[in-house]
Amino acid sequence: MRLAFFGDIVGRAGRDAVITHLPPLRRRLKLDFVAADAENVAGGFGITESIAKELFEAGVDCLTLGNHAWDQREALTYIEREPRLLRPLNYPRLSHAPGKGAWVYDTPAGRVLMIVVHGRVHMDALDDPFSALDQALEDCPLGMAVDAVMVEAHCEATSEKMAMGHFCDGRASLVVGAHTHIPTADAQIFPGGTAYQTDAGACADYDSVIGMTKDESVRRFATRMPGERHKPASGPATVCGVFVETDHKTGLAVRIEPIRVGGRLKPSMPEA
Description:
By secondary structure, this protein is α/β, with parallel strands linked by helices.
């Protein structure tokens, strides 16, 4: 199978870039399944139903959420009606969080399990993401119940993301980090056959501070004083993600390459 994951879509600039570039990318790379993190898509904070529908129409098969999952209150009810929208799997049981953190999607090329987990290092602590991952991978094993498994590690710490990658090695097609908005240069396939990249990067204007307007961000760091609400930068955005090709028998990765299109960053396009 041919899979793609795109990092955090930030504001109008990010979603306009995804809507523009994704349809030709799907055709060029012959993508069977596309997932994208959309927790920053509505003015930088959360997601709305109308924006989600725009992204689905552009060719995204699954949208994921992280620590900004509920910034737009309508997401609390929309996620119950829309299985293509996922929140982190490892919410505490007593939270009764709406929606799902893992789901199996049927495609013409096979069945894809998508899982989202929320890290605990330097973030609001949810339940243990490793236990949640382990249970989900046991319940729906790669190569038996599904043809591909994609895991989004929504974490602040690179060490936690890498540990999750090794923890899933041999049991997932792809483990990819999100949340820190900067594409990392460590795309690789682990010894057990799981493709990995620490962070997919953001779909955002990179003349910014992680997708937000740079002047206010710099002022806050320099003065340590509160100010205006952060706003997404509005210049041309770079669409950042990863492309993975899997073995049709095992579901493990045979290729991983970064995707960067548009905006300020140096382009990177996998061979078709």
